[in-house]
TrEMBL record:
InterPro entries: MFS_dom, MFS_sugar_transport-like, MFS_trans_sf, Sugar_transporter_CS. It is a multi-pass membrane protein. This is Putative inorganic phosphate transporter 1-9. It comes from Prunus yedoensis var. nudiflora. Keywords: Membrane, Transmembrane, Transmembrane helix, Transport. The chain crosses the membrane at residues 21-43, 73-90, 102-121, 133-154, 166-195, 210-229, 372-392, 412-433, 445-464. It holds the Pfam family Sugar_tr. The keyword Transmembrane applies. One of its GO terms (cellular component) is membrane. GO terms for molecular function: transmembrane transporter activity. Residues 21-469 form the Major facilitator superfamily (MFS) profile domain. It is found in: Membrane.
């Protein structure tokens, strides 16, 4: 028989606290996206300031081209590498010592490392890039930790009827983070451009070295603003009752969340433990027998999806470069504005609507169908159907398939394999985009490969991903 407090969570009406939890958890994803997707215009600044000639910013024949290609790839890949580590470490800690206890820690790592990215301790080229790479790695660790914790906490607070929509709403904040990073970049660059009136034929102004640092540091503000509220959140009832085995404390915590009196959800005094709590450890034979197929499906699909989502988002300015003509020959501020403007258009027209279509349809259509549909769509609608599809569903499904004591860990493992795919996609796309002069068909070939990745993701979803819609977390576990 299910615990009353968990049944009360599953059947609770939608309340203010649910929306509050969406905002608190979602601001972490907002900051994640801001910090990850502000890097394309930042690379324009770094290239103009430390490598490229002002009037030939994309001349692949200059002496520094090969070095720049390595730098771009490292600055993109190092954040994703940190994300892999953060998802594994914080995901496991979330199951071992509690979601709430490590939730604030991941946020503080994000805040401090975002500030560190802007404060880079020196101005010489090598020192700045090494410092920036170090803090980007730490930033990735914090970002990685936020993914499994935000998803798990929201899934364990939500009711059964709208759980998918609530988790998708948390994840949708990523789209607004992408939009915010582009808008902030355009505003900062517009202010600096108006103040300096640079000449494209002159050397990049020294003030540009302040502009990119400011853009990075502003990403710490939304995360810092939600730290207090994260610390005020109670531990989830499912963790307290099913992992810590303290049913009475879970009931007291949920009384505040559900806005009901204690008596309707209070358990019998003699009941202090869930019946027959599982005893098998992580990665044991019993775990693999019960959950190995689900973990494989979540991990493989999560690895395939970021290959095209992150690489396409981070390098969309390269994909559409030939349509932008000589705008890339503008001064450094206008150059960054053009990149940010393209990101803004794509975010408003495709990315954000894709997220919110998922919020609306996820509990109506189901996770599995949306995920398969997203993998079937051509590149032209990638940013819409990546989010109204596998980019969001792969964030939701791992929180619904696994037992409470493994939920955060397994979400972290699934997410970490996803970021491995992001590293492969982003670094590979970076090399292809920089090599267009030598190999004009490089991006076309890579896009065909990404299409093959989508087909593989579709197949894995069909054969290995069960539908979790309409059932409680405990029912999905069974």
């Amino acid at each position: 028989m299910a615990l009353k407090v968990l049944s009360a969570l599953d059947t609770a009406r939608t309340q203010w606290y649910h929306f509050k939890a969406i905002i608190i958890a979602g601001m972490g994803l907002f900051s994640d996206a801001y910090d990850l997707f502000c890097i394309p215009p930042i690379l324009r600044f770094l290239g103009r300031i430390y490598y490229q000639k002002p009037h030939l910013p994309f001349d692949n024949n200059d002496d520094n081209f090969v070095i720049r290609r390595h730098v771009d790839s490292v600055l993109l890949g190092v954040a994703f590498l940190g994300t892999v580590i953060g998802q594994l470490v914080f995901g496991r800690l979330g199951d071992r010592i509690g979601r709430r206890r490590v939730y604030g820690l991941s946020l503080m790592v994000m805040v401090l490392s975002a500030l560190g990215c802007g404060f880079s301790i020196c101005t010489s080229r090598s020192c700045v890039l090494v410092s920036l790479g170090f803090f980007r790695f730490l930033l990735g660790v914090g970002i990685g930790g936020d993914y499994p914790l935000s998803a798990t906490i929201m899934s364990e607070f939500a009711n059964k009827r709208t759980r998918g929509s609530f988790i998708a709403a948390v994840f949708s904040m990523q789209g607004f983070g992408i939009l915010a990073s582009s808008i902030v970049t355009m505003v900062v660059c517009g202010i600096f451009n108006a103040a300096s009136h640079p000449n494209p034929k002159e050397k990049t102004p020294t003030e540009a070295d302040v502009a990119w640092r400011l853009i990075l540091m502003l990403g710490a503000i939304p995360a810092a603003m939600t730290y207090y509220w994260r610390m005020m959140m109670p531990e989830t009832a499912r963790y307290t009752a099913l992992v810590e085995l303290n049913v009475q404390q879970a009931t007291k915590d949920m009384e505040k969340v559900l806005d009901v009196s204690l008596s309707p959800i209070a358990e019998d005094e003699s009941l202090t433990l869930p019946q027959d709590p599982p005893s098998y450890p992580l990665f044991s034979k019993q775990f693999l027998r019960l959950h190995g197929r689900d973990l494989f499906g979540c991990s493989v699909v999560r690895k395939r999806q970021p290959n095209f989502f992150y690489s396409s988002n981070l390098f969309q300015s390269q994909v559409y470069r030939k349509y932008l003509g000589n705008k890339y020959n503008a001064n450094v501020y206008k150059d960054a504005i053009h990149v940010a403007l393209l990101q803004t258009i794509v975010a408003i027209c495709s990315t954000i609507p894709g997220y919110w279509f998922t919020v609306y349809f996820i509990d109506r259509i189901g996770r599995r169908k949306i995920q398969m549909m997203g993998f079937m769509v051509l590149y032209g609608l990638t940013f819409f159907f990546a989010n109204f599809g596998p980019n969001t569903t792969t964030f939701i499904v791992p929180t619904e398939l696994f037992p409470a004591r493994f939920r955060s860990t397994c979400h972290g493992i699934s997410g970490a394999t996803g970021k491995v795919g992001a590293i492969i996609g982003a670094v590979g796309f970076g090399w292809a985009s920089h090599g267009q002069t030598e190999h004009p068909k490089a991006i076309k070939i890579l896009l065909v490969i990404l299409g093959g990745v989508c087909l593989l993701g579709l197949a894995v979803t069909y054969f290995f991903t069960p539908e979790t819609n309409g059932r409680s977390l405990e029912e999905n576990e069974e």
